[in-house]
Amino acid sequence: VARMPAALAAPAAPRYSARGEALLERCATLSDHCEAFAPGLPGLDLFPHTQWQRLLRRHYRQAERPWLAYQTQGGLPALKEALCDYLTLSRAVRCRPAQIVITQGAQQAFELVTHLLTDPGDGVWMEEPGYGGAQTSFLTANLAVVPVPVDDEGMNPALAPQGTPPPRLIYVTPSHQYPSGVTMPVARRLALLEQAAAHDALIIEDDYDSEFRYDIPPTPSLQGLSDQARVLYIGTFSKVLYPGLRMGYLVLPEAMADTFRLAQARLHREGHYPLQAAVAEFIATGDFSRHIARMRARYRQRQTLLRQALAPAVKAGLRLSSGHAGMHLVAELESIEQETRLTALGRQARVTLSPLSRYYLGTPARAGLVLGYAGAPDETIRRAGQWLCSLWLAEVAASNEGRLS
Ligand SMILES: Cc1ncc(COP(=O)(O)O)c(C=O)c1O
74 and 115 share a domain? Predict the structure, then answer.
């Protein structure tokens, strides 16, 4: 039998590009699903599965023949119309349906924005600490990612490091900063818009979970405050419906809408129109808003359960974030060492304790745990909360003993 010459044999180990290696490095933190505290996961146990399946079945049965072809519409027109009404009314976004491009989630929207608007080496201001998904898109595109510190009012442009490349893009989560949970007041939003104009930069507003607000009024979008030409608004159905849906959207400045629509069709291809039709109907009938209202009430209860479970630790000095909004709390820790210790114990117990330091690109200014409370059943949240409380109290007792002896 003829043997392939050694020189033609497959290489022993796959060789990846520099961009691929950068991406692989970012994959290390993809975690298995654990029982409690996975950040960003909605309450799938509360999702109206039967109603949803009925809706999906009907829309797949009624699928129109033209939907079988390649599409270049930037998404199903009925979905863009329903979304436009929803965003205008509930997020004070100023748009027309033609400005919307449907994507497979916020992540694909980041990819599209990066692809169309940046070249390698361009500067991007990124919230520090900030969202890993956006960091990954920017880093793997070889952009000069500049971490801009977040304070009590969100990204603080006055703290942007000197001597770094000017921003082409500025990424923010103004409604509910991820992961710190702070909301950006209007004055800071205006300052950010001013900075963007000074640098001729574009702002990416990631409005991922603004629907979940508990005891504060909703803040209108940054996009609605601006003259719109500078803000690209990104939304996702991952929190308000479910992440496996892989559906999100971009609201673009008028002048960019056609370009993005065509680029989406060229680069990612669009499709899944029966699924988009189901989402459109869910929104248009008001079921979507009712679902959000129900989830808001249930997530609030889950947050209360977690707070109750952690109450003895809070009494002993554990600091928790405000929890006015969102789907997670941040518990502050004393040191990165403590964070590492607790995270490892969490892994053993199959509880996701996400270290706050992981959200920093530079040296972490704070240590803590990001505790998602929306995604697990009440009893699991209570049990895992009590477990974490005992763990933290034992840590404090051990460190006090260490200090005394
Ligand atoms: C800040 C932020 N943006 C966006 C998303 C959603 O991303 P996707 O739509 O890709 O699921 C998340 C999910 O965790 C998030 O935390």
Answer: yes
What's the pLDDT tens digit per position in 27-56? 877 766 667 999 999 999 999 999 999 999
Query: Coil, strand or helix: which one is 12?
Result: coil
DSSP 3-state percent helix, strand, coil across the chain (nearest 5): 50, 15, 35
Peptide bond connecting 39 to the previous residue in cis, omega within 30 degrees of 0: no
Is pLDDT of 11 > 80?
no
Which pLDDT does position 404 carry in this prediction? 60
Same domain, 70 and 115: yes
User: Are 309 and 273 in a shared domain?
Assistant: no
Burial of 287 (0-12, 13-18, 19+ CB in 10 A): middle
Domain count, the chain: 2
- Range(s) of the domain holding residue 108: 62-285
Check: CB of residue 376 under 8 Å from CB of residue 387.
no
| pLDDT at residue 359, as a whole number | 97
Atom of ligand 1 nearest to the CA of 247: 9
Determine if ligand 1 sits within 6 Å of the CB of residue 133.
yes
Q: Which helix (H) or strand (E) holds 150?
A: strand 144-151
pLDDT of residue 228 exceeding 80: no
- Is the C-beta atom of 178 inside 6 A of ligand 1? yes
Residue written as token pair 């599209």: 112
User: Atom 12 in ligand 1: which residue has the minimum CA distance?
Assistant: 208
